[in-house]
Amino acid sequence: MVARRERTRHLIELGGLVQKAGLVDITDDDRALLYGAFLDLAQRLGGENGSQLKLLYRRRGVRTFATEAEQAAAARSQVGKAKPPSVAKPTP
Predict the structure, then answer these.
(1) Which of 17, 30, 39, 67 has the most crowded Cβ, counting Cβ within 10 A?
(2) For 12-56, how does the pLDDT look when each residue is reduced to its tens digit (9 = 90+)?
(3) For residue 87, what are the CA distances in angstroms to 30, 73, 83?
């Protein structure tokens, strides 16, 4: 049962990456298009220049994860520093 949960979590995380990369919106959630694109990517990664492509894609992914983490940390640090909205005092 634990292995099944781990597999389910893994698949959900992979689906999250598809969403995060913007592929769902770009393809209008067209599953056949996504599957075809994944098949093409798999063929390219398994091909002659596959190791170079893997390196390129890994670097791009690592950079993007790092940038997003920095942006999220900056946003969290700004939450406590935000000025409260000014409230106009009623005039007598």
Answers:
(1) 30
(2) 999 999 999 999 999 999 999 999 999 999 999 999 999 999 999
(3) 48, 29, 12
